Amino acid sequence: MPFKTPRKKIFLNLLLLFSGLAVLVLIYAGLKGPSRLSLGERIVLKGAGPVSKSAALGGLGLRKFWQKYLFLVGVEEENEKLRQKVSYLEAELARAKEAFYENQRLRKLLRVARDLHGQTPVVAHVVGKPLGSWQGLILIDKGLDDNILPEMPVLAYTPYGPAGVVGQVVAVERRYAKVLLLTDPSFAVDALVQRSRERGLLRGQGKELCLLDYVSAEADVRENDLIVTSGLDGIFPKGLLLGRVVKIYPGRTRGLFRPIEVKPAVDFQKLEEVLVLLRVRLK
Fold it and tell me: Coiled-coil region(s) at which residues (predicted)?
């Protein structure tokens, strides 16, 4: 029994020694021929091959990922440049459209001016409007420097044909003027029913309505009749369009007269350019 243990140790040591020598022989045996793999090399490659392959594939995947990242960064930069270019072109298109529409409105004003003779009317842009319909005032960008004076008539284009009355100048500065609108309760103008020549006084009522007052209850007035200036107030030339009749009150609501509602010919909500008459009269 005591002799078995040292013999066993000696046997194990000899086994390890021969095994090591065998591995060395297998490895170095591959140096004899470069075209062939030795048994040792085959054993080593079989064990280390999968690990090397995984490492190589991992490196390839990382390179592809980095290339895709750089590509996407370039695409995003290009997209941002394109977005900026589109925004610029949209702004240019909006300006061109605005210029086109303004040109159309000015052409319509030119038609109005052709019906007038005397001094050339002054074209002005509306630069200030009231927030509420009860405020019957607007601000225009022409004033004393353009020979604008208080009480001068202010006109605009209307789809009815003749020049439509906007109001009259009430206050003037060098480069600006304040215009009292036709619909303001403090505005009044001598008027005629164009068809029957019945006469009355047109007053502003606010909320884009006017009242034709002092018209006889027996007067020949119908709905949709056009109302024009009479030229008898010394301010507005004769024949300027004021509006059309939208409602006639029945009976005698005010003694010998009956009031008549008139809708202005000018659309004050869309008013952007006007004509200020210096000293003119219609043909």
Answer: 72-99
